[in-house]
Structures are given as C-alpha cells and as structure tokens.
C-alpha cells in the first residue's frame, strides 16, 4: 500500500513544526493572553475547589487535614525555618501570586487602563465603593468581638474567577467591559494588600522591619542603577520576604514590593532594536552554509545567541517577568492555594444554623449585596455628576452586572479570612462557607444578568 502523500504547499520545507508547536504562529496581544490565562485559571480554580471540598468531606478527610498541616523545614547548618505545609503555601507560595499582582498593577498604572486619568476614574471609584460598602455591611452585622476582625473578608474580588465568568460571555459583551473589570479587580487587589499590611498585622519587630526597608531601598537602587537582569532582584526579594516574616508584617507583601521595583523601561528603543536585528540578519545570511546544521556552525549560533539577547533588551523586564510568571501562578500557585484552603468540612444537619451565623451571613451579604450596591452606586453617582464616562460601547446595566461578578471573592477573601481568624477554627469555617456561597451566588447571578442585558455581537 502506498503511504506517500503529496506535499502540502502551505508548508515551508525549511521549517519544522512539532505537533504542539502550532500555537507559535498565533500572535496575540498581552491583554488577550492575560484574559485567556485568567479564564483558564478560573476554570482550574473551580475544579480544585471542588476537589478540596470532596477531600474534606469524604473518607480521605483526616488524611487531607493531616497532609496540609505536615511540618516542612528548611535547614542550613544551625539555621532552620519550619512551618506547616499550609503556612508554606499561604506565606511562601502566595508571595508569587502577590508578585504577579504587583506586576499587573504597575503595568496598568504605567500603560494600561489606569494610565489615563479619565479612563481610570470610574474603575478606581468603583473599586473603592466595592470595598467600603461590603466592609460596612459586614461590620454592621458583626460590630464586636472576635467576629469583627473579619470585616476585610468581603472587600476582595477574585480576578481569575470574575474574568473567567465574564469571558464566557465574550461574544455578548464589549471588550471595554472586560477591561473595566480587570482595572477594577487590580485596584481592588491593591486595596486588599493595604488592608492586610495596616489592619492585619498585630506585632511589629522594628529591627526586622528596618532591615526589610533597607532591602527594598536596595531593590530601588538596582532599578535606578539600570540593572535589568532579574537574578539580583530575586535574591534580594527572597531576603525581603524573610525579613518581613520576622517583622510581623505579612511576608507575602514582599511580592508586591519586589514587583514595584522591577524596571519597566527596556534597554533598547524599537529603532535601535530594528537596526540591531538588520545587522545581525546580514551576518546570519553571510554565515549560513546550506545543508550544515546550526549545531556545527559556531558563527551562526553566535549570531542567534546575540539576537536572543537583543530580543530580551527590547522587552522591559516588567513585561518579561509578567509573561514568565503569570502561567505558573495562574495554573499552579492559585490551584494549590485553593486545594489547601477551600476544603471545608460541611455538616449538612446544621446548615440552617450555619447560614444564620453572623460571620457567614456578613460575608455572604457583604460580597453579594455590598459589592453590587458599592460598585453600581458609586458608578451611578460619578456618571450623574459627570466626573467619569462609561467604557466604550457599554451600558450602565452591564456595569451593574459586573458589580455582581465582583462579588466572587474566593482567593483573596480566603486569604484575608486566614489572617483575621487564625486560631479560631469555628469563625474561619463560617467565613469560608460564606465566601463559597457568595462566590457561587454572585457568579451565577452576574452571568444571568449580563446574558439578559447584552446582545450577541453581530459583526
């Protein structure tokens, strides 16, 4: 049997494409890449949250609890740092999450939606309203005692879940609405970081805090000195994380501070890079020997290596790190966090009492109703006073739908709950149950709302 096939004229005989390499041909913008990853991360987050619930309520429940509380230590001579696996995830691994949040925040401020004041006013005001009103609703229900420490829980929006839900309606909503939600969620994350730093830090060790300040100053000096290699930043940022942990300030803030110090200006301007590439391509063509592999052509390999260095020089370190770290954080760090923190042991016989518990009720009402009132209300006021404009091609009813999706608190809300109710398992259980219930309710309600008020794109 003849298995030979006629050559495909669409294929280049001088190019080899591996089976999983075709995505290389598709050029997408950084924003499109960001949205795609957040959407996939949201779906993965949902899956791991369900797995955690199954583990916590099934025959493996005791093994699950034992595993996430397993002590893990790092030793170097007589020096030792020991924490449970749960703490390593929440205090260590989540620093990478905050690092990516910081990179996204800096990019948005410099060149994104937050760079233009007129465009930035509405999402910034919406984020503030969406933080203040939920906190007030929670505090009104839990004004005193240990439960009052949870007021920061309903302030946060989970960017992956919210954007994932909105992206499912991409054919019905304008792209500007997704941009609005991204800007709102990033400002929301910044607010949550400030709340953690100021209100969820109990005891401060001033000497360690001074060391942390000096290390942050060193990172800024790297930036001002034109250091664009990422290794020095990484080494100092790890030391900053340890100093902050000793100081009493939550160590994950090292991720934000490290991201803010990363250079956002590339070494080469586009014109310089273009001239550099043209010169290298002339050398490449001159060094090329038909039929000879690049493995045996040292001159050709040297040109390719120099070209690679040039590509890195035309790309800002901020841009390069965001691209590099967004994938492992979205697909590894956040799912691991969900797996370790979303496992709630549910007692179905007492669900009625659970739903009436002030903490659970405050969290749920704060996230669903508080976010809706805070975001929609402040946007209505800003537009009424002519202090802001709606995003392009959007309607106010769509902003209201986004305010419902912003009630998906998950990752950051659980993180704040861990800080606020550390050592109080009953209140932590109530808070987590409220977060899950509110996230489910807000996600479904926001999706249905936006589906009803939006029409398919006919272009």
Mean pLDDT across all amino acids: 82
At the first level of CATH, the class of the largest domain is Mainly Alpha
Query: How many runs of DSSP E, i.e. beta strands?
Result: 2
N-to-C span: 48 Å
The percent range for helix content is 55-70%
Instruction: Output the CATH homologous superfamily of the largest domain.
Output: Na+/H+ antiporter like domain
Residue stretches low in confidence (pLDDT < 50, at least 5 long) are 3-7, 18-28
Molecular structure report:
67% of the residues lie in helices and 3% in strands. It is mainly α and 459 residues long. It has two domains: 28-200 and 250-265 and 316-453, Na+/H+ antiporter like domain (Na+/H+ antiporter like fold, Up-down Bundle); 270-312, no CATH class.
Keywords:
459 residues, Na+/H+ antiporter like fold, 17 helices, mainly alpha, two-stranded antiparallel ribbon, 2 domains
Task: Spell out the blueprint of helices and strands.
Blueprint: H1 30-56, H2 61-68, E1 71-76, E2 79-84, H3 85-110, H4 117-141, H5 159-167, H6 175-199, H7 206-224, H8 230-247, H9 253-261, H10 270-287, H11 298-314, H12 317-341, H13 351-356, H14 358-384, H15 396-405, H16 410-420, H17 425-453
Antiparallel strand pairs: 1-2
């Amino acid at each position: 049997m003849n298995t030979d096939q006629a050559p495909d004229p669409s294929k280049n005989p001088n190019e080899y494409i591996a089976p999983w390499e075709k995505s290389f041909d598709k050029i997408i913008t950084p924003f499109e890449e960001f949205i795609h990853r957040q959407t996939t991360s949201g779906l993965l987050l949902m899956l791991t949250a369900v797995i955690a619930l199954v583990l916590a309520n099934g025959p493996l429940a005791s093994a699950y609890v034992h595993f996430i509380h397993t002590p893990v230590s790092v030793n170097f001579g007589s020096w030792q740092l020991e924490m449970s696996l749960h703490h390593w995830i929440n205090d260590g691994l989540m620093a990478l999450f905050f690092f990516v949040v910081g990179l996204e925040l800096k990019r948005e401020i410099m060149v994104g939606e937050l760079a233009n004041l007129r465009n930035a006013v509405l999402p910034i005001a919406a984020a503030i309203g969406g933080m203040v009103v939920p906190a007030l609703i929670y505090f009104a229900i839990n004004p005193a005692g240990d439960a009052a420490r949870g007021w920061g829980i309903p302030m946060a929006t989970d960017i992956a879940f919210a954007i994932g839900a909105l992206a499912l309606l991409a054919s019905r909503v304008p792209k500007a609405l997704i941009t609005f939600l991204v800007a709102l969620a990033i400002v929301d994350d910044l607010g949550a970081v400030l709340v953690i730093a100021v209100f969820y830090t109990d005891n401060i060790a001033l000497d360690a805090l001074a060391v942390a300040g000096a290390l942050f100053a060193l990172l800024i000096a790297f930036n001002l000195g034109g250091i664009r290699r990422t290794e020095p930043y990484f080494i100092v940022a790890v030391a900053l994380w340890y100093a902050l942990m000793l100081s009493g300030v939550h160590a994950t803030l090292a991720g934000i501070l490290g991201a803010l110090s990363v250079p956002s200006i590339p070494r080469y301007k586009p014109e310089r890079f273009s001239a550099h590439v043209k010169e290298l391509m002339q050398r490449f063509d001159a060094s090329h020997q038909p039929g000879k592999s690049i493995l045996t052509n040292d001159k050709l390999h040297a040109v390719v290596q120099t070209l690679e260095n040039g590509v890195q020089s035309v790309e800002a370190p901020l841009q390069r790190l965001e691209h590099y770290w967004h994938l492992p954080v979205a697909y590894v760090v956040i799912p691991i966090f969900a797996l370790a923190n979303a496992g709630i042991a549910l007692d179905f016989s007492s669900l009625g009492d659970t739903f009436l518990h002030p903490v659970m009720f405050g969290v749920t009402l704060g996230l669903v109703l508080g976010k809706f009132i805070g975001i929609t209300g402040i946007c209505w006021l800003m537009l009424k006073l002519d202090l802001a404009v709606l995003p392009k091609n959007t309607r106010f009813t769509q902003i209201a739908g986004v305010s419902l999706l912003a009630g998906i608190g998950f990752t950051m809300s659980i993180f704040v709950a861990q800080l606020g109710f550390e050592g109080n398992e009953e209140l932590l259980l109530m808070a987590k149950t409220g977060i899950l219930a509110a996230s489910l309710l807000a996600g479904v309600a926001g999706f249905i709302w936006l589906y009803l008020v939006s029409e398919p794109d006919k272009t």
